[in-house]
């Protein structure tokens, strides 16, 4: 290491890159579009009916699976020993080996929910009679009639009510600080995916080494060939974002849509988000500091310790170290424009989910600012005056203590600072929109400049597609590669061979037959089509997940009246 490779007075260690996400909870309306599109793209097959790689929880509530945040029960994440070492809360190697054939600490199907469908056949084909037929629920696992009592989004029905919310582990920890009287009830939405942690406990607890963290972009994946179905990873993950496929006997999890990310496209959940609340970008970090940051003694210091792991991509010493460690220049440039780095490190308005698990999560959240303006206005005060907003932070409908238990291990000061900065942004921008003179004291009161607040406003409120998603292509995938990248396939997938056809090699049944090949070229073509000017019609297979809204692709819509074509494709033969 050269003497010039220093940042903040400390030598720069091994530089690595991570593709990360920030979600702005002020914008989430709980529509679950992200969940549905993720389900359609990744878990719409047998064996994972109950699995939601992306789910949207109502807070306060029990979450999915039920009470997953109660680590005294589920034993996820890491614990720090008196000697300062980190060990999985689920136990060391000997304990895991002793229970390898019967892991006792796992959510049951009832903690997730028993997936169901409806008896539509009876509804549609019942003979004429005195009673109107109904589509009764039937288990998607057994096919038997069942009573629906729980699901992945069950908290939605009684969001903020005591019937379900009092079982929230965070509420139990806070005790009397959260009350459920009608006047004080509150709720907000919390979308969740795999955190793709810097220090993933799921990887550490896997006996077969099937879980791994990709060196090039930090995405955590499961090697299906090495997975033996021990399910220790399910216990080890404190966010319970790993699922067991009971048909294949393998673990599955959120892949961060890596085939899309590798060609510079955002994840499906991000692209289909109605509220445009998700941001994707590259963060550079010092891999040599990860263990030290995760092992700090005081849990309340974990958030700041993780921030110190992040490296400034505009620092010449960091750029030199990144080049030394093989980080492509286009990745460093993307990190310099990263909205994730800006929101988490520069503006410090994004916070990690449950840092006390010591996994150093890489999906961060801008906490919700309660709708306090109308409340202040009703009292006769100016609802968007900076002084009034700052004074109301501790009286917000969503308790600061509750947000702190979610995002800062109970430390309320970082949460207060975030809320004050969001309030300052409202006041500062209102003066600009009304043509009033800028008041520098508003920004100074939250440790920012007027330029910082305006940049933050542009990112949170006005950012365009290319500003929300700053994703470089994968190391070996660039425009020059398009002519040489072939279809990815299995060498054993020949006529009559074992290949990848069917589920677990079964030649018959609902999963038999040759699957569609996954291809990097396919995602290149998809990216070009989505960003191109031509209509989608006539350019290959299109579905609702990848349609850009242009034209009428063949087979996507039924034919219009008067259309000459009979296959449901193409555009109308005359103006309609």
From TrEMBL:
The keyword Thylakoid does not apply. InterPro entries: 4Fe4S_Fe-S-bd, Nitr_red_bet_C, Nitr_red_bet_C_sf, NO3_Rdtase_bsu. It comes from the Bacteria. GO terms for molecular function: 4 iron, 4 sulfur cluster binding; electron transfer activity; metal ion binding; nitrate reductase activity. Residues 19-47, 185-216, 218-247 form the 4Fe-4S ferredoxin-type domain. Residues 527-576 are annotated as: Disordered. This is Nitrate reductase beta subunit. Its cofactor is [4Fe-4S] cluster; [3Fe-4S] cluster. PANTHER family: NITRATE REDUCTASE BETA SUBUNIT (PTHR43518), RESPIRATORY NITRATE REDUCTASE 1 BETA CHAIN (PTHR43518:SF1). It is found in: Cell envelope. Keywords: 4Fe-4S, Electron transport, Iron, Iron-sulfur, Metal-binding, Repeat, Transport. Its main location: other. The keyword S-adenosyl-L-methionine does not apply. GO terms for cellular component: cell envelope; membrane; nitrate reductase complex. One of its GO terms (biological process) is anaerobic respiration. It comes from Nocardiopsis flavescens.
């Amino acid at each position: 290491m050269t003497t010039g490779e220093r940042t903040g007075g400390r030598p720069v260690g091994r530089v690595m890159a991570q593709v990360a996400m920030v979600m702005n909870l002020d914008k989430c309306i709980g529509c679950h579009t992200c969940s549905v599109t993720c389900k359609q793209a990744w878990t719409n097959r047998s064996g994972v009916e109950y699995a939601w790689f992306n789910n949207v929880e109502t807070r306060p509530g029990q979450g999915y699976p039920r009470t997953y945040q109660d680590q005294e029960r589920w034993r996820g994440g890491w614990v720090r020993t008196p000697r300062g070492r980190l060990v999985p809360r689920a136990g060391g190697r000997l304990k895991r080996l002793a229970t390898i054939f019967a892991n006792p600490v796992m959510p049951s199907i009832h903690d997730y929910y028993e997936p169901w469908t409806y008896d539509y056949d009876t509804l549609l084909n019942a003979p004429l009679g005195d009673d109107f037929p109904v589509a009764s629920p039937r288990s998607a696992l057994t096919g038997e009639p069942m009573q629906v009592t729980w699901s992945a989004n069950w908290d939605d029905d009684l969001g903020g009510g005591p019937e379900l919310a009092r079982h929230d582990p965070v509420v139990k920890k806070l005790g009397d600080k959260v009350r459920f009287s009608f006047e004080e009830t509150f709720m907000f939405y919390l979308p969740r995916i795999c955190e793709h942690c810097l220090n993933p406990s799921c990887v550490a607890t896997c006996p077969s080494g099937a879980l791994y963290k990709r060196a090039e972009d930090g995405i955590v994946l499961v090697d299906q060939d090495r997975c033996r179905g021990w399910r220790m990873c399910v216990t080890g993950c404190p966010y319970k974002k790993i699922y067991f496929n009971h048909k294949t006997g393998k673990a599955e999890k959120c892949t961060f849509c890596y085939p899309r990310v590798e060609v510079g496209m955002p994840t499906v959940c991000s692209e289909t988000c109605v509220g445009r609340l998700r941001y994707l970008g590259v963060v550079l970090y010092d891999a040599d500091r990860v263990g030290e940051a995760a092992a700090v003694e005081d849990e309340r210091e974990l958030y700041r310790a993780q921030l110190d792991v992040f490296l400034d991509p505009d620092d010449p010493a960091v750029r030199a170290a990144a080049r030394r460690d093989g980080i492509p220049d286009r990745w460093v440039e993307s990190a310099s424009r990263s909205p994730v780095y800006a929101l988490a490190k520069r503006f410090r308005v994004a916070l990690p989910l449950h840092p006390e698990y010591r996994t150093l999560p890489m999906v961060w959240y801008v906490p919700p600012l309660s709708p306090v303006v109308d409340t202040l206005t009703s009292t006769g005060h100016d609802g968007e005056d900076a002084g009034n907003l700052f004074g109301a932070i501790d009286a917000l409908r969503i308790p600061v203590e509750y947000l702190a238990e979610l995002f800062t291990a109970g430390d309320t000061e970082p949460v207060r600072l975030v809320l004050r900065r969001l309030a300052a942004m409202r006041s500062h921008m209102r003066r600009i929109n009304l043509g009033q003179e800028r008041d520098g004291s508003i920004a100074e009161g939250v440790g920012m400049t007027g330029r910082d607040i305006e940049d933050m406003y542009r990112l949170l409120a006005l950012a365009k597609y290319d500003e929300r998603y700053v994703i470089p292509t994968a190391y070996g995938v660039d425009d020059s590669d398009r002519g040489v990248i072939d279809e990815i396939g299995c060498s054993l997938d020949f006529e009559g061979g074992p290949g990848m056809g069917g589920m677990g090699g079964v030649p018959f049944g609902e999963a038999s037959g040759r699957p569609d090949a996954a291809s990097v070229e396919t995602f290149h073509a998809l990216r070009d089509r989505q960003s191109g000017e031509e209509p989608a019609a006539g350019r290959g297979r299109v579905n609702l997940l990848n349609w850009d809204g242009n034209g009428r692709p063949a087979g996507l819509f039924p034919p219009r009246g008067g259309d000459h074509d009979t296959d449901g494709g193409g555009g109308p033969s005359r103006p309609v």
